[in-house]
Amino acid sequence: MVSLTSLGLKLKSRDSPPAKADSDVVCEALMMELECQIKEIERINREGEREKKRMANIADYSWLISTPQKSFEIPQMERLALEELASKVRPEDSGNVISEFRGIVEGIPRDVKEIPQVMRCIIDKHLLERSQHSEESTFRWLTRSMSQLRTLSNHTSGKVYPATDDLELQERPEPRRVKSMSDFSRSRELNMSV
Asked: Which of 6, 22, 156, 180 has its CB surrounded by the most CB atoms within 10 Å?
């Protein structure tokens, strides 16, 4: 097989595939996590059934059946709704969503049909928390801005009046340095005047 680079041809940057949007990447990651957890739960359920049959001394002839068991598939409308919700999750929140989802699913044995609903609830929870947090931060920003505007508008005059303490400080001569360090500026003035 001949590659493009061996022929002297290179892909230009405009020929490279376009980068995916962050929302698409997050959506794919969350949906892949959901599918992996569904497969894992199906595997655990099959092993549990085999173990029950073995413990009950029931003959297992499932190896004679050549058709593989059909795995659970999320209904199309539910999948589309989940993808739409997952695309609203910010990339920085996706790790939290996945870790919370894993914690809930791995902690309790569940039916496979419940897993998409668990994912939906977790995503809804994170989106609700984000909207409440953004409303609070917007409210804080508005109150801070309004208080700053009030303090600026309360000053009717643009003049600055110095305090009396400042005038007294300006009239005092600077004290000479005594023991710590000699005053070179004064000695230069004395040498130049001589």
From this structure: 22
pLDDT, mean of each 10-residue run, the chain (194 residues): 56 64 88 92 87 79 69 89 92 90 83 90 90 77 69 58 58 63 58 56
Taking only Cα atoms into account, the Rg of the chain, rounded to an integer number of angstroms, comes to: 37
What predicted TM-score, i.e. pTM, was given to this entire model? 0.58
Q: Is 112 exposed, middle or buried (0-12, 13-18, 19+ CB in 10 A)?
A: middle
Measured in degrees and rounded to the nearest 5, phi and psi for residue 69 equal: -70, 140
CA 103 to chain centre: 18
Question: End-to-end alpha-carbon separation of the chain, Å?
Answer: 95
Is residue 110 within 8 Å of 37, Cβ to Cβ? no
C-alpha to C-alpha distances, 43 to 82, 134, 171, nearest whole angstrom:
23, 41, 89
Three-class secondary structure of residue 27 per DSSP: helix
As a whole number of angstroms, the distance between CA 100 and CA 122 comes to: 8
